[in-house]
Amino acid sequence: MTDPNAKPKYFKVFGSLQRIMSDRPLYYLSCPECKKKVMEDRDVVKCENCNKVFNEPNCSYNFTVRISDSLTGTLYATVLGDESGSEIMGMPAKDLRQIREAEGVP
Ligand SMILES: [Zn+2]
Prior knowledge:
Blueprint: E1 16-21, E2 27-30, E3 39-41, E4 44-47, E5 52-54, E6 58-69, E7 73-80, H1 82-89, H2 93-102
Antiparallel strand pairs: 1-6, 2-6, 3-4, 4-5, 6-7
Residues 31, 33-34, 36, 47, 49-50 line the site of zinc ion (ZN).
């Protein structure tokens, strides 16, 4: 059973990043107003929550990386948000999306 009072635990991992798991998109689009995940509908995005349509959604990283360290071997970590994602990818999610769209990759 999950303890409802459990506090999140933070770990520092020193290891090397082996691989970015790319079996799903590396980023997701969210509503600029309520930050909920939105779906793309041709050139615009639609927020079901706000019931509004936006041309420029927020774009945030959400992907999994495989890390190896000398003690535990291989572990997987989720990179969430633009701050840490940009550090790994070298650009904000918004820019990556533009490049991928220009190349016709979803
Ligand atoms: Zn919204």
